Amino acid sequence: MLKQAIQRPIGVLMATLAIIIISIVFIRGISISLLPDIPIPRITVHISAPDLDARTLENTVTRSVRSQLLQVNHLKDLESRTRNGSATIDLQLEYGINTNLSYIEINEKMDQIMTLLPKNLERPRVIQTNISDIPVFYLNMEVVDLDLTSHLELSEFAKRIIRRRLEQQEEIAFVDMHGLTEPEVVIQPRYTLLSALNISEDDLIQVIRQSNVDLGNVLIRDGHYEYYIRLNNRLSDIDDVRNIIVNLGNQNYNLSQLADISMSERERRGSFMRNDRRGLSMAIRKKAGSNNFALRQHMDELLTAFEKDYPNIRFSLANDQSKILQSSFNSLRQSLFYGLGFAGLVLFFFFRDWRLPLLIVLVIPIGLIITLFAFYLLGLSINIISLSGLILGVGLMIDNSIIITENIKQHQSKHSLAEACSIGANEVIRPLISSALTTCSVFLPLILLSGLAGSLFYDQALSISISLTASLIVSYFLLPVLAHLLFRKNHIHHVLPHSSDNAHGKIINGIIKLRWPLLGLFMILLIACYYVFLLVDKEAFPQITRSEYQLSIDWNEPISLEESELRISALFDQLKEDIIKSNAYIGELQYLLLEEEQNLNEVDIVLYFNAPPTPSKLEKLNRDFKSQYPNSLLKVQPLANVFDRIFGSDPVPVYAHIQSIQSVSLPEPEQLQILIDTLRQYGFNQQMPPMNNYIQLNIDYEKLLLYNVSFDALLGKLKAAFRSNVITQLKSNDAFVPIQLTQLVRADIHDILAQQKVRTSGGDEHSLAHFVSLTNKEYYKTIPAGRSGERISLPLKTYEPTVLDKMRSLITSFNQYTVQYDGSYYDNQKTLNELLLIGLLVLALLYLILAAQFESFIQPLIIALTLPMGTLGALTALYLFGESLNVMSLVGIIVLSGIDVNDAILKVDIFNRNRSKGMDVRTAIIRGSEQRLRPIVMTSLTTILAMLPILYAVGLGGELQRPLAVALIGGLLSGTVASIVMIPVFYSIVYKRN
């Protein structure tokens, strides 16, 4: 088939051109995303009950919902957190199930349990987490001049104008908002006038509610026609409220004559601050399958238009996740550019012919285009994971092209040009196929990893497999045809003489004579590889120099939102010389899609430093903050990117979960304090969970009966005093605005109770303090629970069985607690066991493929024994350069294994070919080593030279790729030496009798 293709070059070129044109047309429709669109096996249920404290909410709602959700099919784990006014239940499902069906099932269970929950409770929200739900970036807004625009006006403007313009973009699915100020109609009665007119608050409330009744639709019949008549008496704006008629005898009054009516800001429960100014934050969520780069381009165009159209508002983007994707694209472009450039230089240096580099420049982009076309046909997206596979695939494409080109040149001196192209390609295609299969056999089993990691490796393994397949097809069918066209004149290629008399032959001959000492040296280096592995630091992801840090603050005090804003402004003022900007998410978050809710006295601050802060600076920040606010809890960590959001493992290796035997509830704080003190005495540095101080109102029902005061009247007065007496709603445009009757009193709670009066049925008035007493109470801020019920979780820094046994004996000695352990250590152990099993599977597949290729049980072992040398070089380089063994460097070692195996396959294959021609083992090894010396050196040099610039690259891309580059360079240096030296040694030992 190849001979026919060489004889019909125009047909081959035209077919190739047609494939390129078709590919270019279709690959424009490939989805460009941050990550593959894979289902996340996590569903969250949010419960909102603003009027309930944590203990009441847990007892009456959360516990019942949790029990109902324990029946969900394929449930792996469940955890709930109940706070004052809200609760969150996280459900971890088994990976691989249809999460859409689970989402429907959970919603059905919510419908079933609603009959058992309080009647006024809002239906719990069920949120299904998807990759597309992670915001691509945040758009922040703030008013430049507050004298021209209030925050309430900014909120309405953002909802009606900015959000709608954003959601009109094809790539944007949803815009979530935080920091909004909501309006409300405040009615403040003129109590002196009402008293003179003998009008009570209840009279006003009844009139307002009657004026806002929607009577619905009435069906009437007119002959044989039927009509719907809508009777509407609803309030639509504040003037309608002011003009409500209050009838008193024969006298009518407008409500505005009896009360002060105004439109004001609703009591805030959360806010957003950019630097020291209030603003709004919009989370931009992308449509699944849309183009990430197109979204960013359209966002830049929109921002330019916004800044021009609305000069009084400042817009800015924050936490842009597309930077990681852009970095991956830059790495692919850099890999392609440097790989082609250095491959051309290496070929030109060895052969002194400009046409060989031209072959590489023509063939590799074609292989890449065909690979992308296969992406389109298989429905794969271009994302961070698949791009990493393409980057590795491009390097292997270059290696395959070099090997085939060099082999064609070797045969050019002995055969005609057409025969040289055919024989040269046919001679190495089988070992190249074996090499591709062995590389795929390394990556494909990684799909078997449980959870999300296995799904992500699916994209990487598939992209590498596709790129290798495209590389083999293009290199075998197209490269020889192009070589035949370029080398019309048969230039005689200088070939090293096949004799043991030359320098290289003498070296190989000497290596064969010293095979036993070299084998001993190999065994020593094999042992050294294990010790170097112990020395190298190990982590999940390479350390990235970050200038963005997140401060999670729990004031651990019942402070107001305004006080929290003042403290944050003071913190910004202290750090203004070190930071470029800052964003603060204060109090309760208003985002609809929330994985974790935030309490009123909690804050998340994102600081953008001028330069990456040193650990000492971060420690000083922590120390100064704790000295200023000693009760607060502060956590400083790098700003989470998309990988941290999805795969970020808990840094705590072990948790001790303590449950009460005698009760389904948590132990009382006093009892837990005794247990914590006992643990401290024995060296366990544990702290009490965050506590919440609140005031409990106790109503004296006997006095209510004695003074003939109705409970509803007292409750209405209390709600009015604390601005929570919503009596109806105003339908304004597309929103419901609450109308509440209140007294705008800003005073101490005791003063409020003393000043506010409640009327008896006889017309007398008494202060609220006469019927209500106050009690200070302290309880857990959050009530955590798992599958087995409520529990207290204590973190431990390390996993030590003796320490765990000691803690267990101390806790169980109280005869009222049980303890269970879990944490990231146990998850990591499971992953390590899976990796061990997968590693054995990889070795088995590798052996089976090579055994089938060489029809031998021994030769696969010869090839596999070169892998430890490459691994030793990679680990040594990582240790010397101060890099860690992480995901990126591990990928580098895997790719290195493919290259080393490729070199070993080529050498063993040529040894076998030479022996089949009648040569003895020594001559076959010497001549085969000479024939394969240049392709091995050239492929190694090309990869090393392409990786060198990455060592000096700066920015996110450079830091991510540096561990991979270091591992590849170190491994290639030692692996190339091992291929040149150890393969002849092993082969000569096995076949010494021949």
Topology of this structure?
Blueprint: H1 2-7, H2 9-27, E1 39-48, H3 54-69, E2 75-83, E3 86-93, H4 99-113, E4 125-130, E5 137-143, H5 151-167, E6 172-178, E7 183-189, H6 191-196, H7 201-210, E8 214-222, E9 225-232, H8 238-242, E10 245-248, E11 251-254, H9 255-258, E12 259-265, E13 270-274, E14 277-286, H10 292-309, E15 313-318, H11 322-351, H12 355-378, H13 384-412, H14 417-443, H15 452-486, H16 503-513, H17 515-535, E16 548-554, H18 561-575, E17 579-587, E18 602-609, H19 615-628, E19 633-638, H20 642-647, E20 654-660, H21 669-681, E21 691-699, H22 701-706, H23 711-721, E22 726-732, E23 735-741, H24 749-755, E24 757-759, E25 765-767, E26 772-780, E27 783-786, E28 789-790, E29 792-796, H25 801-812, E30 817-822, H26 824-854, H27 859-864, H28 867-880, H29 887-916, H30 921-951, H31 955-990
Parallel strand pairs: 7-23
Antiparallel strand pairs: 1-3, 1-4, 2-3, 2-27, 5-14, 5-15, 6-14, 7-12, 8-9, 10-11, 13-14, 13-17, 16-18, 16-19, 17-18, 20-29, 20-30, 21-26, 22-23, 24-25, 27-28
- Average pLDDT confidence is 82
Strand content: 15-25%
- What structural category characterises the helix and strand content? alpha+beta
Binned, the helix content reads: 40-55%
Count of individual beta strands: 30
Counting DSSP H or I runs of 4 or more residues, the number of helices is 31
Regions with little confidence, pLDDT below 50 for 5+ residues: 490-501
Q: Report the span from N to C terminus.
A: 36 Å
Q: Which radius of gyration do the C-alpha atoms yield?
A: 37 Å
**Biggest sheet overview:** 9 strands, antiparallel
Coarse shape: elongated
Q: How is the quaternary structure best described?
A: single chain
